[in-house]
Every structure is written in C-alpha cells, then in structure tokens.
Write a structure and sequence with these properties.
The chain is mostly helical. 52% of the residues lie in helices and 6% in strands. A four-stranded mixed sheet has the order 5-3-4-6, with no helix packed on it. Strands 1-2 form a two-stranded antiparallel ribbon. The chain is elongated, with a radius of gyration of 42 Å.
Length: 578
C-alpha cells in the first residue's frame, strides 16, 4: 500500500512538473558550429531525460558484457550448490530413516556438488555408520579434525568409537582434547568425569566436577552429591594408608551431604579412633535422623573402645529413640542386648518385627538369641529354616548387583553413585556367599522356588552361585554388617573400627562326605575369612551350625558359654554340645 502511494505521488509530481514547463513561456537555443537549434522549454527537458537514460543503458550494457563470464560462473555455482543441498536433504532423510543404499547414492551427488563441506562430511559419516564401515567412519572423523568447524564433532565420533571398542585410554584422550576446546562442550566434560571416576582418579574427577560447577553445567545440588560420593570413595581407599586425609575427605563429604551414610560411617569411625567420641556421636546422630542404617548403629554402639556390653546397649537405646519408626532401632537394641545377655530385652525389641513376616536378618538374630539363651537346637533350626524363605533385608544394590559394602561405581553399568540401600529384587546376586544347611542333613534348605544353580544347591537368598559342595562357606551376609568390611591383615583394630564384628550372623560350615568340616570362620572387615582357633569336626560328621555367643556376658563372675554346635554323628549318635 505504501509503495502504491509513493508511486502515485511520483507520477503526480512528474505530471505537475511537465504541466509547469508547458505553461512557462520561453525557448531553449543550442548553437553548435554553424547550426542553431531552438525549441521550447518542455521539449528540451524531455530531450535531456532521454539522453540521460541512453547513457545509463550504454553503461549497463558495457558492464554486462565485461562481467558476463563472472555472472555465468556464479550462476553455475549457485545451480550446483542448489543441486548439492537438494541431494544433501534427501541423503539426510534417507540416513535418518535407515536407508543406507539411498543415502550412499546421495553421498555421491553431494560429493560432486559440495565437495568436503561440513554437512557433506556429516552425511558421509552417517552413511558409513549405516553400512557398518568402521574404517571409513574413523577416516572421516579424522578428516573432521582438520577443520575448525567440525573438530568437536570429529573428537566426539572418535570418542564413541574408542568407547565402543573398550579402548579407555584413547577415549579419555579424545575427551580431554575436546574438553580443552572450551567449557561449552558439555559432552566432553561429562564423559571425562565418568572416565576419571571409573578409573578411580578421584582427584581428577573432582577437578572436572568443579569446572562443570564453575561454568554452571550441572545443578548445584547434584554437584554437591557427586562431590560427596567422590570424597567418600577417596576416603574409603585411603582409610588404612592415610587416616588423616581420609578423615578430611569424609568430613567434607558429610558436610556436602549430611544424609550420606558411607561418609558419616567413615568419618565417625575415624573420629572414634582419634578419641573424638562426642564429635563422632554427633555425626552419626545427624545422619541417623534422615537415614537410619545398621552401619551407623554398629559404629555408634562401639564408638568408645573398651566399653562394656551394657554401655553399648545403653547407646543403642539412645540412638533408636531418635527414630522410633525405623526398624533399624529395634534390631540395633536386640543386637546390643544379645551381646549384654539381656535376652528378655532382645526379645522385646524384636517382638513388633515378628508380628507379620520377619526378615532374614530378624530370623537369624532370633536364632542366635535362642541358641545363646536356651541352647534349643530345635528352635534354632526352626528360625534358620524360616530365614531361607523370609523377605530379604535392604542391601547396597546397583543395577541388580548386591554388594556387601557401598561402592562408588556400579560394576554392571559403570555409573557413579548407583548403589542404593534398598531391598534387592529376587534373583539379585550378592557379593558374599553362604549356604544354610539343616542340621543332620546333607542338602540345603530350599526356598519356595529354588533357583537352578551349580551342584543343585539352593543358596540362601543373597548367596553367590557356584559354591563348592562340602566347602565351608563364609558368614551368611547380615545387613547389619553390610558395607562395614575392611581390609584383612591390618593387625589389631580399635573397637570402633571392628564395630560390625558383634553384628556378624551365624557361621554355617559344612562337611563333604567323608571329609573334615572346617570350623566356623569369622570374616574381617573386608569379608576375607580368617581361621578360627577351634578344631574341625571329625571325618564323617554331619553338617553343623555354629552360633556365636555374646562376647561380654554382662554378669560379673560368670564365664561366657562356648559356641553351641547343633548336629549329630552320621551313625545316629546323640547330638553333643562341645
């Protein structure tokens, strides 16, 4: 509309100008040589306009003739580019739809029309991947490294190939090179972080995480959680070799995430070893409020070395009172009461947990109470039999893998912070092994639907398949001791460090036909068995169940009873308690 108005105004102005010239009197005279040309003012104006138009036309014709080759070349180039981009569009659609043959045809056209442009290289590499030509794919990615606009894409492609081939050093080198290009390449810093954590390079992973936090590439809350996991992992690995550095890392991890149980456990244990009992208790109490856990209860009970079982029981009561709705409190009280030989209180603590379906840990603990208080082999066997089919207890679980202790990285998927304290799904394979045998029988107690494992032996839920029949298994895993195991061969340890020893479940050695059955073995903090001082059973003896007696009788002047062995000789001789 505006253009129409402007054109109308222009025509109007020209008409007015022509009318004005026509109304003006006078003439224009032009003398050239001996000639004289006289005309009116209107005709002279029109002649001038026609002359200017003729000059412009001549100038344009000259330039068109001079620039014709360049114009023709530009026309051909534009047509070639148009054809190339049309082929590129068709090729991209074919590659996205998985039509490798059609994409390959378009690649040939794109190569002729566009050469090695960035988009052409992208289509070529996608087509090579569709055709499964890994050598050509690698070659194109290397060509991308020669161009500034495709170097990041080339590095990512080579990184993906190296990771798919399991070449971790090459993958890390590509990720580091891409991360050095700038903080805007998010995949590079994320991939580098995962590789560093997977290799146990906690310091490098912390530095990468801090760079991601600084450039706001990760949420603050998530960054704090990952930093807590990394510091806890480093504290776990240096707890024996450098306790001071491990304590600093554990305390910083606890500050970043107060509800993170592994960090609080390590920090409290190391503080207790240094004699800072009050500080260790405060850390456990803070984490217990948000995440009640058997490891925390064990460390809290043994926070002061040399305390009697009665004093540990009092601490267990105090801790349980802080979270009365949690099942971990009654279990901690029952465990401490069993050590103090306060059997009535132990039973009372477990009574609410027995009303519905007690878990495996509760059943095993009841078996220990029956054995320690009455030596009732029938009741012991009844509770251990119930433990086989009882609901499983929570454990450190990641991607279907159950571990006896917390780990920073999942061994299945390689994810960091994958382990969670939750009830494992049926069929999960734990790290610790153990088989439960009925006294006087040469076969295990089968669950409701026994899984098919080696040797036809059905393990207690949470046992590792492939145990050798007749071999003495390790301790049945107890969730109260899960995650507290540490390295063997460290020599004597303070009570706070060996806190899980008192929560260890019954040992279940078995004997092969005609061979000796080794005595019960006690697991150290890493779950590595250490030989007991007791003598093994005689050749031909039946399997036995040995239950630990409380270490502290709690009654002055009274000797603690020896472990009770349930089982008899193969020939039907009466059972005997050593």
């Amino acid at each position: 509309m505006l253009r129409m108005i402007l054109a109308f105004l222009l025509v109007l102005a020209l008409a007015l100008a022509a009318a004005w010239l026509a109304d003006q009197p006078g003439s224009v005279t032009l003398r050239i040589g001996g000639y004289e040309i006289a005309t009116s003012l209107l005709v002279a104006g029109l002649a001038l306009v026609l002359f200017a138009g003729l000059v412009v036309l001549i100038w344009l014709t000259y330039h068109w003739v001079v620039d014709a080759p360049a114009l023709l070349g530009s026309f051909l180039r534009n047509r070639r580019r148009r054809r190339g981009f049309d082929a590129l569009s068709r090729g991209m659609v074919a590659a996205a739809s998985g039509d490798g043959a059609a994409a390959a045809r378009e690649v040939a056209v794109v190569g002729r029309q566009l050469g090695d442009s960035s988009l052409a290289l992208l289509l070529k590499v996608q087509t090579a991947q569709l055709q499964g030509d890994r050598a050509e794919t690698r070659r194109i990615f290397h060509r991308m490294l020669e161009r500034d606009d495709t170097v990041s894409l080339g590095l990512r492609g080579l990184f993906m190939i190296a990771r798919a081939e399991g070449d971790a050093p090459a993958a890390r080198a590509y990720a580091e090179r891409a991360a050095a290009l700038g903080p805007h390449i998010a995949w590079a810093s994320e991939a580098l972080f995962d590789l560093q954590a997977g290799e146990g390079d906690w310091q490098g992973a912390l530095a990468t995480l801090e760079a991601r936090r600084r450039h706001r590439m990760i949420d603050r809350q998530k960054a704090n959680r990952l930093a807590a996991v990394l510091r806890t992992a480093r504290a776990q690995s240096t707890e024996d070799s450098d306790p001071t550095a491990a304590l600093d890392d554990a305390l910083e991890a606890h500050r970043l995430d107060p509800d993170f149980v592994p960090a609080a456990t390590i920090a409290a244990r190391l503080l207790a070893e240094k004699g800072e009992v009050g500080r260790a208790q405060r850390i456990v109490e803070r984490t217990w409020r948000g995440s009640p856990h058997p490891e925390l209860a064990a460390v809290y009970a043994h926070v002061r070395p040399g305390d009697s079982a009665r004093e540990r029981l009092a601490r267990a009561r105090s801790l349980a009172a802080r979270e009365p709705e949690s099942v971990e409190g009654p279990i901690a009280i029952a465990r401490a009461a069993l050590e103090a030989r306060a059997f009535g209180e132990a039973r009372a603590a477990l009574a609410p947990l027995l009303e519905d379906r007690p878990s495996q840990r509760v059943c095993v603990l009841m078996a220990e109470i029956e054995n320690a208080e009455n030596g009732d082999r029938g009741r012991v066997r009844e509770w251990l039999t119930r433990a086989v089919g009882a609901p499983r207890d929570p454990a450190w679980t990641a991607d279907g893998f159950v571990s006896a202790e917390w780990r920073p990285i999942s061994p299945v998927s390689g994810r960091i912070d994958a382990f969670e304290w939750r009830t494992p799904v049926e069929g999960s394979l734990p790290e610790m092994a153990g088989e439960l045998l009925i006294a006087g029988s040469d076969r295990p107690v089968p669950p409701a639907e026994p899984p098919a494992l080696e040797g036809g032996r059905a393990p207690l839920p949470g046992a590792t398949p492939g145990a050798t029949p007749g071999a003495a298994p390790d301790a049945i895993p107890d969730a109260t001791a899960a995650g507290s195991a540490r390295g063997a061969g460290d020599g004597p340890r303070p009570a706070a460090r060996a806190a899980t020893a008192a929560t260890e479940p019954p040992q279940l050695p078995t004997s092969a036909a005609g061979g000796p059955a080794p005595s019960a073995r006690r697991s150290d903090r890493r779950g590595e068995p250490q030989p007991d001082d007791g003598a093994g059973a005689r050749a031909g003896d039946e399997p036995v169940i040995v239950l630990h007696q409380p270490d502290d009788p709690g009654v002055p002047g009274e000797e603690p009873e020896k472990p009770v062995a349930v089982g008899g000789a193969a020939g039907g001789a009466p059972d005997k308690a050593p």
